[in-house]
Write a structure and sequence with these properties.
The chain has 137 residues and is of the alpha/beta class. It has 3 helices and 6 strands; from the N terminus they run ββββαβαβα. The protein has a single domain, classed as Nucleotidyltransferase, domain 5 (2-Layer Sandwich), CATH 3.30.420.
């Protein structure tokens, strides 16, 4: 019997691009994937300035993976505590980033935010040159 997987991917959006800062993003594109195929998409408001509530909202929506631009250290920690996979510090056209994610093509640096986090590992926070360079977690 084949293994079927479903997941919900959230991407904060600003026009047709990834919103530059998740902490202040007002809208999320929610894409539901079933067995590698997109089955639905919707836009959800997350205009919530209180960071713990913003992280909890991801769980309420059922988000498995958050693909975003910059994220503050406190919100990063809250999202990780909610066990949402976090792929931060990306920029670019939403459709191109989604396509790269679904095809597993995140090895290219073309989606990394300029001047931020080159050489880092996904989901582990910024690497060399990142905003949190000399801070411990």
């Amino acid at each position: 019997m084949p293994l079927y997987t479903t997941m919900k991917i959230a991407v904060p959006i600003w026009e047709d691009r990834i919103s530059p800062v998740f902490d202040t993003a007002a809208r999320l594109l929610i894409v539901e994937i079933d067995s590698g195929i997109e089955v639905s998409r919707s836009i959800v408001s997350i205009d919530e300035p209180f960071l713990p509530r913003r992280a909890a909202r991801l769980v309420e929506i059922g988000v498995d993976t958050l693909i975003c631009g910059a994220v503050s250290r406190p919100l990063y920690a809250l999202i990780m505590a909610e066990r949402v996979q976090l792929i931060p510090f990306l920029s670019g056209n939403v459709e191109e980033v989604l396509q790269a994610f679904l095809s597993g093509d995140f090895t290219e640096t073309r989606f990394s935010m300029p001047g931020c986090c080159r050489g880092r590992r996904r989901g582990k926070g910024p690497g060399r040159g990142g905003r949190w360079k000399n801070q411990s977690f």
